[in-house]
Amino acid sequence: MRKSKKPLIPVLTLFFILAVFCILSVTMFIVSLITFILVRTGVLTIGRPGTAGLEFLIFVFVAASILIGTFITVLWGRVLLKPINRLVGGMNRLADGDYKTRISLGKHKFGKTLANSFNTLAEELQNTEMLRSDFVNNFSHEFKTPIVSILGFTKLLKHGNLPQQQMDTYLDVIEEESERLAAMATNVLNMAKIENQSILTDVTAFNLSEQLRNCILLLEKKWTAKSLEMIVTFNEHMILANEELLKQVWINLLDNAVKFTPAGGEIEVTIHEGENVVTVQITNTGSTIQNNDQKRIFQKFYQADTSHASEGTGIGLAVVKKIVELHKGEVFAQSDNNQTTFTVQLPRNLGE
Fold it and tell me: Where residue 139 sits, what CATH number does that domain have?
C-alpha cells in the first residue's frame, strides 16, 4: 500500500467555513446598513427619532447577526459536512490502495444509499485486486511449468544417444508444452487487444458452421486423448461478424469444455438460427458449476476451480464475453445435473 498523502479535508472544511462565514457576515452588515439608512432618512421609524438608543439597537443587531452567522457556519461545518468528510476520506483511502475501507453516513435514507454505493464499489475493487493478485501468482506458475519442461527435455535431447522412441516422446512433450505456452500468451494478448476496443472492425460474411468444424479439428488431439465423444449437430449457417475474433470465442469455449469433461464424456455443439439471431450452444458432461460461480466466471482473472487443479489463467471466458459484447450479442452459462452449457447468441446481421 502506498504511503497516504496528507489529508486535505480539514483545510477544505476550514476554507468552506470561512467562506460561508464571510458571506453571512457581509449579508448581515449590508442588511444592517440598509436598515440604518432607512431609519436615518426617516423612511423607517423605530422608537423616538433622534434618540441615542436607535444607533445602539442597530449595532446590537449587527453583532447579533454576526454571532448567529458564526454559529450557523460552525454548525454547518461540523454537522452537515461531516458525512461529506467521511465520504471524501474513504475515497482518499481507496485511492491509496486500502480496499478494505468501509464507511457509514448515518441513518438518513440518502446517506445510507450513498454509503451502500461506496461500500459496494470498495468491495468490488477489493475482489478485483484479490483476483488480480491470484492471477499473477497462478499465471506465473502456469507459465513457469511448461518452460521448465521444455528446458529439461531439450537438455536431454542435446546429450544424444537416445532411442528414437524416447526422442519422439520428448519431442511430443516439448510440442505440447509449447502449444500450451502459445495458448496462454494468445489469451493475454487478446485480452489486452480487445479490452479497450469499443468498435468492431473487419466485419465480413462467412460460414459459421465451417468455422466451428475447423475449431473442433484444431482441438482434436486434446479431446481424442481423453476419449471424448464429440457430437456435432448443425447444418450450414452464415453470419456477418469478425471472423478472427469469433474463432477465439469457439476455441476458448471448446477448450474449456474439453478441459472440464472427464475421460469418456461427451461434448455437443449445436447451432440454432432464428429470424435475427444465431444461437450456438456448447454442452459438456462433467462437474456442475455452482450458481455463484456461474455469475462470475466471465470476470477477468476469475477461476471457479480455486484449487487450480486444472490448467488455466482465468482470462479465456473474459475474452469470450468481451468479443460477444462487441458483436452486440450475449453469452451465459447454465449448469446442473453434471452438465454444463455455454450459450452464445449473436445477431445474424450486425446492422439490424
Answer: 1.10.287.130
pLDDT of res. 268: 95
pLDDT at 279: 95
Among the candidates 175, 194, 213, a domain finishes at 194
Note whether 40 and 107 are same-domain residues.
yes
Please state, in angstroms and rounded to a whole number, the distance separating the CA atoms of residues 179 and 311: 13
| 90 phi, psi to nearest 5 deg | -65, -40
Gap between the Cα atoms of 227 and 180, Å rounded: 20
Q: Which helix (H) or strand (E) holds 100?
A: none
SS3 state at 147 = helix
Given 65, 94, 124, which residue is the final one in a domain? 124
By three-state DSSP, how is residue 14 classified?
A: helix
Answer yes or no: is 3 within a domain.
Answer: no
Note whether 242 and 197 are within 8 A (CB): no
What gap in Å lies between CA 3 and CA 121, rounded to an integer? 22
90: cell is: 474513504
| φ, ψ dihedrals at 331, nearest 5° | -140, 135
Taking the C-alpha atoms of residue 308 and residue 141, their distance in angstroms, rounded to an integer, is 10
DSSP per residue, 30-70: HHHHHHHHHHHTTSS--SSTT-HHHHHHHHHHHHHHHHHHH
Count of structural domains within the chain: 3
For residue 328, the tally of other CB atoms under 10 A from its CB is 13
Determine the pLDDT at residue 202.
84
Q: Is the separation of the CB atoms in 316 and 139 below 8 Å? A: no
Residue with cell 457576515: 25
Closest CA to 257 of 300, 324, 200, 212: 212
Residue whose grid cell is 483545510:
11
Burial class (CB in 10 A: 0-12, 13-18, 19+), 217: exposed
**CA 181 from centre of chain:** 26
Mean pLDDT by 10 residues, the chain (352 residues): 46 63 68 68 57 58 67 66 77 82 77 81 77 65 78 85 86 85 75 72 91 93 91 90 91 90 94 91 86 72 50 70 91 88 88 53
CB of 326 within 8 A of CB of 197?
A: yes
